[in-house]
Design goal:
The chain has eight helices and 17 strands. It is α+β, with helices and mostly antiparallel strands. The longest helix has 14 residues. Bound molecules: ligand PPE.
Length: 336
Amino acid sequence: MSFDETKWVWINGEMTSWRGATVHISTHALHYGTGVFEGIRCYKTPNGPALFRLDAHLERLFSSAAAYRLRIPYSKDELQDAVCDTVRSNSFASCYVRPICYYGSGGLSLNARSCPVDVAILAWPWGAYLGENAVEHGVRVILASWAKFHSRMMPTTAKGCGGYLNSMLAAKEADEAGYDEALLLDEKGNIAEGSGENLFIVRGGRLLTNDERSSILLGITRDSVIQLARDLGIEVEIRTLTLDDLRKADEAFFTGTAVEVTPIREVQGESIGSGTCGPVTARIQKAFVAAVSGIDPRYSSWLHSVSSESEPALLHSSPVGNITLSSKRDCMPPSY
Ligand code: PPE
């Protein structure tokens, strides 16, 4: 990840220089993780940079804030414009965008009554989340010894800053053991999700994935993949996933804004399927790239152009994202 190219950060309505984008040490969220955030990707398309499912991300930001009783002092339309401004000001063709709303400086009582709600939007170029090879060849995953927090402890469908301490412990555990990522189980021992991703299993040509009953964040990429798969004629079953399902999987993959669609090739020393990216995962990746890069016009409503004027329908061109589509790829059909 490189912040080097970021010049401007949007803070409370103003474009601020990178160096000036600081918070006070008494900021409530620094002490207690009392904020909510989003992660949105902006892709290069034939019509210029476009944000993928901006609307859904802002919708989730507002419902996360409501879950933690944070009142965001801007409307959804204002934040939509602010996100576009941030990408435009930095002249990014593609990037990752991180809006964050949090209790600022005003006192450290836990009810946060005296704290303002501050809002910032950071954008930077973020390449492949789990490394260059991950999207192509798949990742090695450890089962975290930490359980995913249960939705009776904190709202798992809200993207709250403090909840990521749970993810961070799991990710550190994976890193220290030489794995790429960690998978967390829920309190019953069923699969929940990755530290920052949802999970899909492929079995007999069908997709299986879980839902909020397994304490997961309901990912926007997950939702997009469910729709893409159904449009490809691939059946999707939503139900509890067990470790046994994973062991018997033909293929498995992670979905998330940062990770996009990333195959899982090994879980704690055991290969999944052929131990590389499988054919169903490859079909989903291909459909995903076509959607995010504006090549497949059926999904153009998922793209929000960052340019000030609305643009005509999207045209064919080479996709740009972290899922590189080269004929060398074992995981892409050769026709791509
Ligand atoms: N579960 C968790 C716990 C999660 O953090 C993410 C996103 C998802 C599922 C997938 O959600 P979605 O992006 O809407 O498809 N994780 C974000 C943050 C990762 C980070 O390291 O920071 C992301 O992918 O942007």
